[in-house]
Amino acid sequence: MSLASLRHARVVLPQPVRTLTTGSALQKDESSWLSKLMVRKIEPTKNSHSRMLSDKFDIYELHTHNVRPDSVGKYLENYKNTVQIVQSKGNLSMELIGSWNVEVGDLDQCLHLWRYTGGFEMVDQAKLELSSDKNYVQLMQERGTFLRSRHLQYLLAFSYWPQLQLRQGKNIYEIRSYRLKPGTMIEWGNNWARAINHRQNNNEAFAGYFSQIGRLYNVHHIWCYKDLQGRKETRESAWRSPGWDECVAYTVPLIREMHCRILAPTEFSPTQ
After folding, report:
1. Tens digits of per-residue pLDDT, 38-94?
2. Please, are residues 186 and 49 in contact by the beta-carbon 8 Å criterion?
3. Is residue 142 situated within a structural domain?
4. How many domains is the chain built from?
5. Does a structural domain hold residue 23?
6. Residue 8 falls within a domain, yes or no?
7. Which of 16, 90, 153, 246 has the smallest CB count inside 10 Å?
8. How many CB atoms lie within 10 A of CB 60?
9. Is the residue at 30 inside a domain?
10. Across residues 35-40, what is the average pLDDT?
11. DSSP secondary structure letters along 111-175
12. How much is the mean pLDDT over the chain?
């Protein structure tokens, strides 16, 4: 089967193994467990993954900036001024959702999440408008001197994720990023549409996205907690919820790489 066929396919995996026994039964169960790591059945579809996984017209822009350690303060002041310029323009269909410093993970790194209402047409319009603003362009040029590297992704929100709500008070965030095997995004969505029901105890689900442009087959889940202890207790409670272990058993074989970062909101972040 061609790679193009895999990209427009739904992957169906067998039921996860519940128990282990001995002898021939053990060999059978081990075979069943290993079979979950393989693609069992491919069903082609005429719909794009984005149409099947997202029912929203919003485009999300995730900036990942790796900052020089000696320039973090200057960088944050620069970005704050940039946000103010964007907010002063009433004709742009874009808004900042969150800005964070990484506290655990890739240190000296900042993430910024923007939302464009109206699709990629609004992205094009905003870029054209901002490119003609001399102050904005000057800040962009200055920011380059504070950075070691940067990356940009355009994302769509999963349709099954709870509606995004900005948070108040003192919180920390966790972004869990996954690189999936090509052709498995639909299966990921099918399983997480059920799995998200096990993660509602503490209103911790903030946002869930998958990539459209940038690193493809990327998924980002963003969670909100009061502190690290609250994160620990919330995650442990999910494992006590019947069915959560099955969701994990289904989704782990779909992942090629994963990592998490703990984030702290910047002073100018709309979500705190």
Report:
1. 333 434 454 556 667 887 789 999 999 999 999 999 999 999 999 999 999 988 999
2. yes
3. yes
4. 1
5. no
6. no
7. 90
8. 21
9. no
10. 40
11. EEEEEEETSHHHHHHHHHHHHT-HHHHHHHHHHHTTEEEEEEEEEEE-TTSPPP----SS-EEEE
12. 85
